[in-house]
Amino acid sequence: MKSIIPAAIADQSWSAIWFLCALAGIGIAALYSVAGGAPTPWAAAHAVRFTMFLVLALVMSYIRPETYKALMFPALGGSALLLILVLLIGTIGGGARSWLNLGFMQVQPSEFAKIALLGVLARYYELLPPGEVRTFRALIPPVLITMVPFMLIVIQPDLGTAMLLLLSVVILCFMAGLPLWWFIGSGMAVMIFIPIAYNFLMMPHQQKRVTIFLNPQDDPLGAGYHISQSFIAIGSGGIWGKGYLQGTQSHLDYLPEQHTDFIFPAIAEEWGLFGAFLIILLFGLLLRWGMGVAQNARSRFEQLFAAGLTCSLFLYISINLMMVTGLAPVVGIPLPLVSYGGSAMLATMLCVGILMSIDRNNRRARHRSDF
Question: What is the overall mean pLDDT for the chain?
Answer without folding.
Answer: 87
